[in-house]
Design brief:
The protein is an alpha+beta fold. Helix content is 24%, strand content 31%.
């Protein structure tokens, strides 16, 4: 008779041990019929398992201390599974108890009832009762709050018309000229500002006079002058002259503003954008404003264009005379860095926002009185506050809310829009008063002044922003693009929003 080798014998013993171990695992996974005897089986099996563990320890080649640690760890894992299993059994018992209680109250549904829709009818009845109670209890406190997650039937066509690519770093801000020729301006962290042809997407002019990130750009209401604010602690006023190229046909890439469009991160490449743009450049400013001791984060023209206001990280806003470059007023009071400033389109009013969770309204209509109102409606950094043509102020914040205020009664907001991401520099259309919200999560949403969501701009693998959206601005007089957005994906995008259809489906 052939003798069995030592290696084959050891292999057989190992196979038997694995088999017995797998059998013990299957035995532990009890069915519903023997759940009550689980603990008894565990106690009875402890002695046999202990003997088996001892035999394994004797055959193992591992050091005694390492074997002991492994056994202790496996024991802890087993105890955790036991606890979870027992909790599961207890939860099932509670569910059975609740079902029995519902059955005693007459809420029983057999197969026929389910087929006839009785469950749906009774559930909707219970839901309506709960909804009525909630409305009665919280009607007074929530009448002016509108959730951004509320489903709407609006499905307007939002067409991506043109992408403006050429900056070598993120774009912080953009603006549209207020006179002819109408061009798009962008301010970038690459230390430059660019002017673009809206129709062709071609760069027309590059301003290279700043030594730091260009944080904002605004155009003079009447003349061909631009105002830029920079991280080099200055604001520059510079003149420009551009000639628009011949427009070319625009391809139709319309996409419905669906809320369920997914986006894949596979397009998010960190590589360089297209090569350097061959366009004329300006390197010297007409006027330089130098009074700040920190980053100048934003600047804007007062009505008439004879004065400008700047906002800085030195916690102050400055009012300058354009002709003399002299500092007229230093607006102090914020406790932390300023994030934005905006002027009223028809009145001498200024609003500044700050990281101190407030925004302030400054009134220069009476030269001898500079009244200041402080508004504390947010719980985090106020990223921007802008005027509408009427008597409203709209503020956005990192606390994921946007609030609409009435200048005649600023004690509480008229409407509150709650979102799922921090809100950056917002803009409001002049004629239709539609609010465009750029978000940290790369979304751009549209709301009306009452807080009802109208649409979300499409964002897919092929179009839309791939990084944080920093700013939005409207240009309703332009037939090609009436909304522009920019972000840290180094591009600006021109959109065509079908506003009549958008409002009709509201």
């Amino acid at each position: 008779m052939p003798m069995e080798s030592g290696s084959s014998s050891a292999a057989r013993q190992t196979k038997q041990k694995r088999k017995s171990h797998s059998l013990s695992i299957r035995r532990t996974n009890s069915t519903d019929q023997d759940r009550m005897g689980l603990q008894r089986d565990m106690l009875e099996g402890q002695s046999s398992e202990t003997l088996e563990s001892v035999s394994r320890m004797e055959d193992s080649k591992l050091p005694l201390s390492l074997r002991s640690n492994l056994l202790e760890l496996f024991s802890q894992i087993e105890r955790e599974f036991e606890n979870l299993y027992l909790e599961n059994i207890e939860l099932r018992r509670e569910i059975d108890t609740l079902n029995e209680r519902l059955a005693a109250e007459g809420h029983t549904f057999d197969g026929a009832d389910l087929a006839k829709g009785a469950l749906k009818t009774k559930a909707s009845h219970s839901t309506s009762q709960l909804s009525q109670k909630l409305k009665t209890t919280y009607k007074a406190s929530t009448s002016k709050i509108v959730s951004s997650f509320k489903a709407t039937a609006a499905r307007a066509v939002c067409q991506l018309v043109k992408e403006y690519v050429g900056h070598r770093d993120g774009i912080w801000d953009l603006g549209i000229t207020r006179n002819q020729p109408v061009v798009l301006g962008t301010a970038s962290a690459d230390h430059t500002a660019m002017l673009w042809s809206i129709e062709t997407g071609k760069c027309l002019l590059k301003y290279m006079g700043h030594q730091g990130s260009v944080n904002s750009i605004k155009f003079h209401p009447n003349e061909q002058m631009a105002l830029t604010a920079s991280g080099d602690q200055t604001a520059h006023i510079w003149r420009y002259m551009v000639q628009l190229p011949t427009p070319q046909p625009v391809a139709d890439v319309s996409t419905p503003c669906e809320d369920d469009v997914d986006f894949s991160d596979k397009d998010e490449a960190d590589g360089e954008v297209e090569g350097p743009i061959d366009c004329p450049s300006i390197r010297v400013a007409t006027t330089m404003l130098r009074s700040h001791q920190g980053v100048v984060i934003a600047a804007d023209w007062l009505v008439g264009g004879k004065q400008v206001v700047t906002a800085s990280w030195d916690r102050s806003a400055n009012l300058y005379d354009v002709e003399t470059s002299e500092l007229v007023h230093s607006l102090t009071g914020h406790d932390q860095e300023l994030t934005h400033c905006c002027t009223h389109p028809t009145q001498r009013l200024v609003v500044t926002s700050s990281r101190d969770t407030t925004f302030r309204l400054w009134d220069f209509r009476d030269p001898s009185i500079h009244s200041v109102n402080v508004f504390q409606g947010h719980t985090d950094t106020v990223t921007s506050a802008v005027f509408t043509v009427g008597d409203n102020v709209v503020s956005g914040s990192d606390d994921r809310t946007v609030k609409v205020w009435d200048l005649k009664n600023m004690r509480s907001p008229m409407a509150t829009i709650r979102t799922d991401s921090a809100v950056n520099r917002i803009s409001v259309s002049v004629s239709q008063k539609i609010i465009a919200l750029p978000h940290d999560n790369r979304q751009v949403r549209l709301f009306d002044m009452s807080g009802v969501r109208l649409a979300r701009l499409p964002r897919t693998n092929r179009q839309g922003h791939r990084r944080m959206v920093c700013c939005s601005t409207w240009s309703e007089d332009n037939s090609t693009c009436n909304l522009f957005t920019c972000g840290f994906d180094r591009q600006a995008i021109g959109w065509n929003i079908n506003i009549p259809s958008l409002l009709q489906e509201k």
